[in-house]
Every structure is written in structure tokens, then in C-alpha cells.
Amino acid sequence: MVKKTAADLFYDLAGGALYALGIYTFASSAGFAPGGVSGLALMARHLWGVPIGAVTLLLNIPLILFSLKILGKAFLLRSLRSMLFCTFFLDLVFPLLPPYRGSSFLAALYSGLFTGSALALFYMRGSSSGGIDFLTLSLKTLRPHLSIGTLMLLVDLFILLLGWPVFGNVDAVLYGATATFVTSTVIDKLMYRSGSGKLVLIITSPESSVAEQISADCGRGSTALLARGTYTGRDRQILLCACSRREAYKVKSAAVRADGSAFVMVLETNEVFGEGFRSLS
Which InterPro entries does this chain map to (predicted)? Predict the structure, then answer.
């Protein structure tokens, strides 16, 4: 329990710092706003000079109240802790540091990079930075047929377009869209590609020694499924072998060495859990 709490605090601390770095140092300094509640807070700062973190926290209050019964207290309390870390860094720490004064396009790229990294850290610990996440997750719970991606896209699009009149130029929309795209890409890479791998499917004869060859060459086990070819009518064996990306070539080579007529498919897997890979817990 102590280790888990310490890990949660560490992730919140790192996530809060990265979040503030992306939002305050890059997005705010370059004069654009990404999507979400943070984008609205950046617009409020541009118009009235109010603190970004405090405004973000205030805007999250109605979303928290709306989501309380749907998402549960535990998730919202963890998210509130993450939001407080973000507010601390946004309003008290990073205003003391020099802002970025370089290219606006580079600012958009780095804003998306650091913000996406922060959100991935929060999500990995079952937390969130709040904002549109609360709304979309709640609507998804109430209306399971709706697409979260579509909902977030529509909300973000509205906020991005709002940046045009607020900042007075269309570049603010383009930079905001760039930062939002990079944020989504970074979240996907960190949360899924870190545990990604390959799944090698091998169709071979039941008498072949492909499984033994894979085990000998790669140290990987495989799972055999019995099948029948619809064209030949002959019994076939399908081997499934989950492996890392760098092992995929060795598995394929082992299969071809054992059975030159084998049919081999190498597929992408977003995440692999279990023995020899990441723990399910």
C-alpha cells in the first residue's frame, strides 16, 4: 500500500511538471490553445490574465459534479489529486521559469509531446487531468454506442476554432490542432507501444516440428490450434507465437527452417500480457 501510494505520488509529480511544461512554457508562450479545458483556460489567460491552473480547476468543478455518480469517487479523487499537482506547477512553479520564445510550430510540437507524456502517466495510474475526459467517459457510460473518439474530436474542434477569434489569427487554430494531434499520438505510443509486440501465425502440417524449432531457436512457446484447409481439405495446424518486435524475424526464420511450405503471418499487437511479457496486474 505504501509503495503504491508513493508510486502514485511520483507519477502525479512527474505528470504535473510535464503538463505545466507543455501548457505554460510552450502553448501559452506561443499564443495558441490546444483542445480541452486547458485550451479554454489558456484563452481566459490571454483575454483576462487569470492563472491557468486555477481556471482549469474551476472549469472542472461542474464536470466533476456531473461525473460523480457515473465514474465513481475513487477515480475522481485520484484525478483531483493529479489536477492539484498540475495547478501547483502551472500557477506557482513554471511562471518563475523563462518561457519559450522560439518557433511557434516547434512550440506546438513540444507542447503536444510534454502534455501527451503527462496524460499517459496519469492514465497509467488510473487517474486523469480532468476536463473533457470526465465528460466523454460519462457520456460513454450512459450511451455505450457512442464513440469516445468522435465525442472528443467534436469538443476539441469547437475549442480549437474558438481560438481563432480569441487569439486573432488562424495560425492559433493550426498550432492548437498540431499540439492536440501530437498529444494523442504520444499517449498512444506510451500506453500501448511500450507493451506492444508481434503475433506470428504459422499454418503448417500437424506432423511438422515448427513448434520445437521455435522453442529451440527463440526460447518462445507457441499455441497449436487444429484446422482444416478449405481448398485442399487436409488437416492443418495453426501455431500462435507471441513475441517481442525484435524476435519476430527469428520466429519466422525458425518456422521456415522447419517447414519451407509453411504459411506465415506476422501481426501487430498493441499489448501483450502474461508469462514472459508484462504482468496482468
Answer: DUF2179 (IPR019264), N-reg_PII/ATP_PRibTrfase_C (IPR015867), UPF0750_membrane (IPR051461), YitT (IPR003740)
Q: Are 111 and 23 contacting, i.e. CB atoms less than 8 angstroms apart?
A: yes
CB neighbour class for 249 (10 Å; exposed up to 12, middle 13-18, buried from 19): middle
pTM: 0.79
Q: Report the C-alpha gap between 209 and 214 in whole angstroms.
A: 9
Max CA separation in the chain (angstroms): 75
Q: 200-228 pLDDT, tens per residue?
A: 999 999 888 999 999 888 888 899 999 99
Q: Which region among 80-89, 120-129, 210-219, 272-281 has the lowest average model confidence (pLDDT)?
A: 272-281
Length of the chain: 281
Q: For 235, phi and psi rounded to 5 degrees?
A: -70, 140
What is the predicted pLDDT for the residue at 145? Answer: 67
E strand spans, the chain: 197-204, 223-228, 235-243, 263-269
d(CA 204, CA 276): 25
Amino acid at 177: A
